[in-house]
Amino acid sequence: MKVCILGVGSFGTSLAAALAPLHKNVVVWDKDLSVLEGIAAHRENKRYHPGIVLPPNIQPVFSPQEAVEDAKMVLFAVPSHAMRKVALQVASFLPSHIPVIAAAKGIEEGTLMSMTQVLESCLPEPFHPYIAVLSGPSFAREILLGHPTVMTAAARWDRVARHCQRAFASKIFRVDISSDIVGVQIGGALKNVVAIAAGMAEGLGLGHNARAAIMTGGLAEVALLAVRMGGNPITLYGLSGMGDLILTCTGALSRNRSTGFALGKGRKLPEILAELGQVAEGVSAAHSAYVLSTQKHVPMPICHQVYQVLYEGMPPEQAIAEWMAQPTPEF
């Protein structure tokens, strides 16, 4: 079947590569024409994954309308801040009665909507039951290298999640299913904030004890918020909660952990993000977490301290010290 991926950044490229052996026609589109031209000419995404040859049936197209027309599944792999713009671009061309999958992890700033809520606000109501989210522990480069990866697809309709499950099923890629759209998305978005905190502790040289405490406390905070927003706490102890948090807090490929590490070393955020060259979703998610925790009256001391560092200029060592003076919230 024709599968469409909107957004050919680091993660979108890896999803296309995972789908390519399973489907004859994998179409990709991105606003960055140079990325599409590089794939067309060299079978390589030189900006995000230089040196990795992509399968020949990944076809770049230069029109979002052409990308989604006649597709049997569409994945939105654009960064969270671009989700609304791209959804509105393709809304009038999107085929009906097909899975529409949010593959970005984040909370929209201003509206505080999850990615599936953004899609629902942009697409006509008949599309809403077909909207799903794909999330879980998944470094893009490891997917491209063929390392085993397991993610979660959550949807309102079981058959939509199962469609996504079947579309990705292979010897190296598995998709579990869930009905907890809220929990899966809160876990996927806010673990990035915890990863920044873990990176800061590492950059400050505080040791493994501190990192373990931050990961444990951070998971409890995120689970509390997810429950307050209607999610299932069990979800947060699965792939899209604990699994994703462990990977992002400890893995060398984690952009959010790297951002925190550099902050712990005394570097300034603008310089860090410029050097990174990619989106660190935890930076914007920290602001969203701060606002949500205030609105929902959920204590989130770790996420709050990350917000203080990123947006109020608090030194990381002070943020860690203030966090240590506060108890971990309990269920």
Topology:
Layout: E1 2-6, H1 10-19, E2 25-29, H2 33-42, E3 58-60, H3 64-68, E4 73-76, H4 83-90, E5 100-102, H5 115-122, E6 131-135, H6 140-144, E7 149-155, H7 158-168, E8 173-178, H8 181-203, H9 207-228, H10 239-250, H11 255-264, H12 269-276, H13 281-296, H14 301-312, H15 316-324
Parallel strand pairs: 1-2, 1-4, 2-3, 4-5, 5-6, 7-8
Antiparallel strand pairs: 6-7
Helix pairs in contact: 4-5, 8-9, 8-10, 8-11, 8-13, 8-14, 9-10, 11-12, 13-14, 14-15
Quote the average pLDDT: 96
The N- and C-terminal alpha carbons lie at a distance of 45 Å
What strand line-up does the widest sheet have?
Answer: 3-2-1-4-5-6-7-8
The helix fraction, in percent, is: 40-55%
Q: Quick one: overall form?
A: globular
State the secondary-structure class. alpha/beta
Low-confidence runs: none
Number of strands: 8
Write the element-wise H/E pattern from the N-terminal end onward. Answer: EHEHEHEHEHEHEHEHHHHHHHH
Radius of gyration: 19 Å
Number of helix segments? 15
Strand content: 5-15%
For this entry, what is the oligomeric state of its chains? Answer: single chain
Largest beta-sheet characterization:
8 strands, mixed
Describe this protein's structure.
- It is a single chain.
- The protein has helices at 10-19, 33-42, 64-68, 83-90, 115-122, 140-144, 158-168, 181-203, 207-228, 239-250, 255-264, 269-276, 281-296, 301-312, 316-324; strands at 2-6, 25-29, 58-60, 73-76, 100-102, 131-135, 149-155, 173-178.
- With 331 residues, it is of the alpha/beta class.
- It has an eight-stranded mixed β-sheet with strand order 3-2-1-4-5-6-7-8, sandwiched between helices.
- It is globular.
- The protein starts with a strand and ends in a 7-residue tail after the last helix.
